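A reminder from the course coordinator: this example appears on the midterm review sheet, so study it carefully.

Given structure:
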């Protein structure tokens, strides 16, 4: 039985799929299976996947409703249903794993047996323009096993940290068994619906070491959505509103009760006119308090950095 099931959906990704497959086959950790799910490709992607499966019996091509175009969430869910590994990882067809990703991730999550999910930063790669490359900073959350539902509030709702890319996570398959996968009703933010389910219920470990590469190119889903004005990483927009409404409904139906999540949801939804009346006076007070704490923490950290730099200069005299 494989230790890790790597799930890769693809749709007309002939320019990139071979590289993604090669990055899995070159892992220093060898106890994996790679599940390739065709989401309705009309280019050579399916032939590339078939050739990879013929060359390596750890690579499997998963039947996905006659390869119809049902979206990334449905394709990933088909992969989850077919997975045999103790852990599940995701790799989109245009992204890459570093060679030691699975070795290091498996060791880290096994060293923290109560963690049901591990994630870390990703390197944003601009092929041919590498001077633009950058790595997400997750130092504020890294090195900690976060009890639920803290990351749901801080990262997904209040956006106080980087949201994990799909290629950066490792999840115990037992945490997502029984259909607890990605919501197939969202075209954008569908990845975060699974993070919501996990952050709400399970301890999650965060690393600050980048072990995956998120390729930037104009044909990616996020680039197309951004260029069409449908998505923005920082500003309110319709797709995020729909996601927040999904979170509110899921939280309401989950049976979990947490006033901090209720408050965070009201604050987030208040950015949209139709939900503006949800905000309470107490929510504004909490918002001011949170910003004050962040300002004081940032100021104290700046002082610490200046003191350390001064001591280093003194030590080198």
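Designed residues:
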């Amino acid at each position: 039985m494989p230790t890790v099931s790597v799930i890769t959906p693809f749709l007309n990704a002939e320019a990139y799929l071979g590289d993604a497959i090669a990055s899995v086959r070159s892992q220093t950790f060898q106890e994996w299976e790679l599940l390739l799910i065709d989401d309705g490709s009309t280019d050579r992607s399916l032939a590339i996947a078939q050739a990879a499966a013929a060359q390596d019996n750890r690579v499997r091509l998963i039947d996905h409703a006659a390869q119809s175009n049902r979206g990334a969430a449905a394709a990933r869910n088909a992969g989850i249903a077919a997975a045999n590994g103790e852990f599940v990882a995701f790799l989109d067809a245009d992204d890459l794993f570093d060679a030691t990703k699975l070795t290091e991730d498996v060791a880290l999550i096994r060293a923290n047996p109560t963690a049901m999910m591990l994630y870390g930063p990703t390197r944003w790669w601009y092929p041919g323009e590498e001077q633009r490359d950058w790595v997400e900073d997750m130092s504020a959350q890294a090195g900690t096993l976060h009890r639920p539902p803290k990351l749901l509030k801080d990262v997904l709702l209040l956006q106080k940290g980087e949201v994990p890319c799909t290629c950066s996570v490792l999840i115990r398959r037992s945490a997502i068994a029984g259909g607890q996968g990605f919501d197939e009703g969202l075209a954008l933010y569908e990845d975060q619906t699974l993070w919501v389910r996990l952050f709400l219920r399970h301890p999650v470990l965060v690393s600050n070491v980048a072990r995956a590469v998120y390729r930037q190119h104009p044909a990616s889903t996020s680039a197309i959505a951004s260029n069409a004005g449908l998505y923005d990483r920082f500003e309110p927009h319709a797709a995020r509103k729909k996601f927040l409404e999904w979170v509110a409904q899921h939280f309401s139906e989950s049976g979990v009760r947490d006033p901090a999540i209720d408050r965070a949801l009201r604050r987030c939804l208040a950015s949209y006119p139709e939900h503006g009346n949800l905000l309470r006076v107490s929510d504004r007070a909490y918002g001011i308090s949170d910003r004050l704490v962040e300002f004081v923490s940032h100021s104290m950290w700046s002082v610490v950095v200046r003191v350390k730099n001064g001591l280093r200069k003194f030590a080198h005299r």
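The first strand starts at residue 4 and ends at 10. The radius of gyration is 21 Å.
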